[in-house]
Amino acid sequence: MTVPRSSLGDIHYNLTADVLHKASFPHRFYFHGNGSSNGTTGRVRTRLNQLTCAQHLTYLRREVRDIYTPVQFEASYWLRQPSASRSSSRSLRSLKPILQQRTGSTHTVTNQTKFSRFCLEVNCSTNLQLSAQLVLPQNLSYFALGNGRSILLKTTLVNSGDDSFLPRMSLRFPTHIHYIKVLQNEVSCDVSEGGVDCSISSLSLPAHTELNINFLLDVNQSSSAGDVSISVNASSDNYEMEEYLGDNTASLLLPLRYGVDVNVHGFVSPTSFVFGDEQSTPVDCYSESFNFTYKVLNLGPSRSVDSVLEIELPKSLSPYSYRLLQLTDWQSSQGQCHLSNQTATVEEECDLPDVSVLKQIVFYFSKTTTRRMFCGRQDILCERLVCYLGNLESGKEATVQITTKLNPTVLLQYPGRHGIMVVESIAVVTSPTEDEHTIVTHTLPLAQVAVEAHFNQKPPAAVQIFIIIVSLIIGLLILTALIYCLWKAGFFKRQHQKTEDDLKRESWDYVPKMDKTESSS
Predict the structure, then answer these.
(1) Residues near 211 by Cβ (< 8 Å), separated by ≥ 6?
(2) In whole angstroms, what is the distance from residue 308 CA to residue 398 CA?
(3) What angle do CA 301, 305, 308 make, to 5 degrees?
(4) Across the chain, how many H-helices and E-strands are there?
(5) Choices 3.40.50.620, 1.20.1540.10, 3.40.50.2300, 2.60.40.1530: CATH for 262-458
(6) Cβ-based neighbours of 113, under 8 Å, separated by 6 or more
(7) CATH T-level topology, domain 123-259
(8) CB-CB contact of 200 with 167 (8 Å)
């Protein structure tokens, strides 16, 4: 060290060995004169235009596990302040020596060296290659929210370069993704803010070595549907060339979806009734009552968002405009229901026109047939009840109960009347529908409930009179034909043939009769 001043000065310094050592490892070098410490102090006296040196001997510990981190020595120095000396008041004060310092630098010098080792790459660069894959439950292409199952994150770390010292892996994901555990014992992980930081217990990953690490993750049940990004990054404390850093990171997309499997079931009580009895005249024309019950069950793993159930029942008997069935009351265990006003207008009549005698006769002697009265989607001839059930959690059900009344007189209209009339109602789950965030297992699940109306086969009064008259006419015709046939067969004629023997036959008296000659004598 050269000092361009004529005065002398003492420079004090602190020398520290192995400044870059890892905090989890002891210092690899120490100074023997100061025990086991890695630091020492000293001073040198400078002279004008002379190089002054001080030598220190350091020792390497026996067991050194970190041969990858460079060894750096650091010396910080300062100039000792000279003591004040007495001098004449007239003489000039001696100048204080100063140390030259460049802008932005301090009075610190460093020296760095590396352990000698055999390397395959330039500058002993490592080359970490990371690949990752998400394994979702049931091998689906999406993760169904609320299914209660974990996600398997499979990663593979390959070192294609030189030995990698302190390899580590970090996971970063949103807050509604939770880390459960790592499946490999040789890997330890700590949960940090925004992710997980993992390290390998073997301290180093040798060259051309492959390591498989699997993680278990979970998703918060209250999460919203969407695509979630999970990033995985691998790094180490070794130098890695910039062109090798491109495959150190893997980004995965986790599709979160609502997996909905909604079913609907329905039943009615009673299931059948008999119509066509003219002798009974009820006070209320809507004399038949029915109770419909529909159950909507979510069997899917996720909640059904904004569930809607539409129930349709035949409103009239085509081609007539008379009201057949009316809804008197409805209740829902969840949400609200209301009647749709987008249906055809019907006549609220109880006194319907009578069917002609000829039509009644034709119907009575016709073959018994069945007619189905059903509703199509958005059918204006049907009464439509729309129920907004809201969110239906997984495994939960909602019940809709409907009370209806039916006018059996409408079923007697002809044409249109049949021996068996089947009144079918249909319930369809119209929401949720499949979109970018919802996967529906069954498209438009529906339930059909039927009520059978059986004609009693009792002839009306007009038909009874017709049968009696026709029977009498047929009976008279049969009697006339029978008499005619008997007359033709000669049943009404007697034939008496008197023979000569019958005229001359003797009396039945056993007394013999005398000849005429004898009697005369």
Answers:
(1) 156, 157, 158, 167, 200, 205
(2) 11
(3) 115
(4) 4, 30
(5) 2.60.40.1530
(6) 70, 71, 72
(7) Immunoglobulin-like (2.60.40)
(8) yes
Phi-psi region of 453 (alpha: psi -120 to 50; beta: other; left: phi over 0): beta
Q: In CATH, what class is 9-81+100-113?
A: mainly beta
List the strands of the sheet with 397-406, edge to edge.
262-269, 288-298, 397-406, 325-332
If one counts every other C-beta atom within 10 angstroms of the C-beta of residue 501, the result is 7
- CA pair distance 312, 427, nearest whole angstrom: 6
Alpha-carbon gap, residue 434 to 259, rounded angstroms: 10
Write the single-letter amino acid at 328: T
Q: What percent of the chain has pLDDT over 70?
A: 83
Q: What is the pLDDT of residue 517?
A: 47
pLDDT computed for residue 519 by the predictor: 45
Q: Which amino acid is at 513?
A: K
CA distance 311 to 388: 12
Question: Which stretches of 367-419 are assigned E, i.e. beta strand?
Answer: 370-373, 382-392, 397-406
- Show the tokens assigned to 313: 């029942």
Q: What pLDDT score does 12 carry?
A: 83
Q: What are the CB-based long-range contacts (under 8 Å, 24+) for 53-59?
A: 53/1, 56/15, 56/31, 57/31, 57/32, 58/17, 58/29, 58/30, 58/31, 59/29, 59/30, 59/31, 59/32
Same fold, 9-81+100-113 and 262-458: yes
Which structure tokens are listed for 12? 């004090």
Q: With CA atoms as reference, report the closest residue to 138 among 445, 443, 441, 444.
A: 441
- Specify the DSSP class assigned to residue 272: E
Domain ranges in the chain are 9-81+100-113, 123-259, 262-458, 466-492
User: For residues 13 and 235, what is the distance between their CA atoms, to the nearest angstrom?
Assistant: 37
Single-letter residue type at 432: P
Residue 390's beta-bridge partner residues?
307
Regions of the chain where pLDDT drops below 70: 1-9, 33-36, 48, 80-105, 278-283, 354-357, 359-361, 363, 415-416, 494-521
d(C-alpha 521, C-alpha 518), whole Å: 5
What are the beta bridge partners of residue 274? Answer: 454
Cis amide linkage into residue 432, ω under 30° from 0 = yes
Phi, psi of 474 (to 5 degrees): -65, -40
Q: What is the pLDDT of residues 136-150, one digit of tens each?
A: 988 888 999 888 889
